[in-house]
């Protein structure tokens, strides 16, 4: 089967999936809209929102030995197990949970750099989200190590394996490269980066920020051979107020903030919110249900992988249609005045994120024009602390970031293209 251009969900199945999300086609206060800003926070799975709300109604402590307390504790224990095994694909290690994925990254990178007594430098890339980039920079300043930055490939919008290896040596204690860019959508070859880095230094600690990649494809920390990876549920169909990270066994047992009498690999401080875990369990079940639609298996990780594969194929089909269009409506590559940044023919190394611009109109003004026409997108510009370094390393002045979700269909894509053509023609 040729998957280079993706595989669409059957129309009725796509509509069935979209119906499981809250306000997929309208904001109840502001009216109809096409929400193509899922990289900033995805559409919310209704069951995830309901699960969190249901758990939050009870005052019971999940560390109490009675019915309701045990039920709430089960959300935490089962959620911890499934996030590690099903989402991260981990066979060992521990889960770190915080109020945000950014907090997990700072906490873990700081812990590694403080515990490791060898090594004179740490490496990350200029393409990283500030939560990953700045965590390494902070830890280097704190521990007196050299901070090294790998530049992006301005043609592909990614980080080349060979380029990374120019910055890694036998004295590199930590390497942090994101799984996929939150602006270009480019997917990094983390498995090969890890393999090559460990050839140079077998003891190196490898970190991969998977926040943007997680909603688009399966994470596999075992196959990638990384020590750390993190996700943000609010970008993965879930809820805000929580971030989760996997740490390998050798990181899990490092000295870190913990209660004295807890086991050495426990990172949880205080009582976690059962509702957050309950919500994530619903996200996992949703993805597994997609997997069950296409294959038969009793193994949850297998179903999850298949579900994420089908999501990825649907999103590649969306991406191809957005770029190439149809006989009825031209794609972004073919609308006069539209620029697609860091574009590449091989979509197998892209997640569903497009960086674009329209000649003759500033990015913030362009976002407003989309908003007037019922389309939500977002600008990434040099004046933003979240974007400046990234757009500069990509060699672009800024971008309109367009990020649909797998539950969107052909009509949604065509509407976006028609609106884009209208804006381009109005300039």
From TrEMBL:
Essential cofactor(s): pyridoxal 5'-phosphate
Entry GO MF terms: transaminase activity
Keywords: Aminotransferase, Pyridoxal phosphate, Transferase
Regions annotated as coiled coil: none
Transcription regulation recorded as keyword: no
Residues in Aminotransferase class V domain copies: 85-301
Tagged with keyword Transferase: yes
Pfam families documented for this protein: Aminotran_5
Protein name: Aminotransferase class V-fold PLP-dependent enzyme
């Amino acid at each position: 089967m040729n998957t280079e251009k993706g595989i669409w969900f059957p129309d009725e199945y796509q509509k069935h999936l979209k119906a499981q999300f809250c306000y997929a086609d309208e904001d109840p206060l502001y009216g109809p809209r096409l929400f193509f800003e899922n990289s900033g926070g995805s559409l919310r799975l209704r069951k995830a929102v309901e699960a969190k709300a249901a758990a939050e109604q009870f005052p019971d402590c999940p560390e109490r030995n009675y019915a309701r307390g045990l039920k709430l504790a089960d959300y935490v224990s089962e959620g911890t197990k499934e996030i590690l095994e099903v989402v991260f694909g981990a066979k060992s290690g521990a889960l770190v949970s915080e109020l945000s994925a950014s907090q997990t990254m700072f906490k873990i990178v700081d812990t590694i750099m403080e515990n490791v007594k060898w090594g004179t430098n740490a490496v990350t890339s200029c393409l990283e989200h500030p939560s990953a980039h700045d965590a390494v920079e902070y830890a280097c300043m704190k521990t007196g190590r050299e901070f090294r930055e790998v530049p992006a490939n301005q043609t592909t919008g990614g980080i080349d394996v060979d380029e990374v290896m120019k910055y890694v040596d036998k004295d590199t204690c930590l390497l942090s490269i994101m799984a996929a860019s939150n602006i270009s959508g480019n997917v990094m070859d983390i498995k090969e980066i890890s393999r090559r880095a460990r050839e140079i230094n077998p003891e190196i600690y490898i970190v991969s920020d998977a926040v943007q990649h997680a909603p688009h494809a399966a994470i596999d920390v075992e196959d990638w051979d990384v020590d750390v990876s993190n996700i943000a549920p609010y970008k993965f169909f879930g809820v805000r107020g929580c971030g989760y990270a996997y740490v390998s066994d050798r990181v899990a047992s490092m000295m870190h903030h913990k209660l004295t009498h807890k086991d050495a690999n426990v990172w949880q401080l205080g009582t976690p919110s059962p509702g957050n875990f309950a919500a994530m369990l619903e996200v996992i079940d949703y993805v597994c249900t997609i997997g069950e639609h296409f294959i038969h298996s009793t193994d949850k990780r297998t179903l999850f992988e298949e579900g994420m594969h089908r999501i990825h194929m649907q999103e590649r089909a969306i991406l191809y249609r957005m770029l190439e269009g149809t006989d009825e409506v031209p794609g972004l590559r073919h609308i006069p005045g539209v620029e697609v940044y860091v574009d590449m023919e091989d979509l197998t190394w892209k997640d569903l994120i497009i960086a674009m611009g329209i000649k003759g109109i500033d990015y913030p003004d362009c976002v407003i024009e989309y908003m007037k026409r019922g389309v939500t997108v977002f600008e990434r510009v040099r004046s933003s602390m979240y974007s400046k370094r990234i757009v500069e390393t990509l060699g672009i002045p800024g971008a309109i970031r367009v990020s649909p979700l797998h539950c969107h269909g052909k009509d949604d894509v065509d509407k976006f293209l028609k609106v884009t053509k209208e804006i381009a023609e109005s300039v």
